[in-house]
């Protein structure tokens, strides 16, 4: 079986374990069914997710020009504290920014290898946690816009990490923590503007990933450098495919790459 198309991040849903899908233009593929099967990935060409042109991908699936122009790649995406739509101020496209920023956002703690703080739109929960490979997570505040979430995250970063150690996440070098307690410790550091949005009580969400075997040592597959790979799929965690030989493939990191995906 051969599938061909441009890679976008894997779609997910939670049943007892996370179900992962590769979605192509005319087809989709449930990857959980491919565990223990040999597959190959062949990089064919680039295709920018915005302009569709065959231009080298710069970041987030976009070519350099699109990344620097389109509202979907504004700086406030990665740095929510730079959001300005609540002040009616435009970055690249005010209508787009209002739709994206002026909606409920969550500041959360997620544990994928260490506890980190993060921000997401409310509708992206639990998707965001799955994408990060978090085995447990909990909400801290629910605020009405992205700016308030951003300044809360910045304030909490002084007391908890904002990075995932993806090597530890992929080798399953993880600890279970009591996130209710971790959350409690941070309460006093929430900025005044956001204090009223503290979620009074809630519990951890636990997430189970479909992994048969975790690698001890990992090597990353970069299709830009090595355009062909084949191996036996042993697991899926975060946005990574994990193979028997310790190779890991970041699907999200290859958005905009057109590939041929073969099930051997
Ligand atoms: Zn483009």
UniProtKB/TrEMBL annotation:
InterPro entries this protein is in? DUF2797
An example of a Pfam family matching this protein is DUF2797
Quote the protein name from its UniProt record. DUF2797 domain-containing protein
Species annotation: Salegentibacter chungangensis
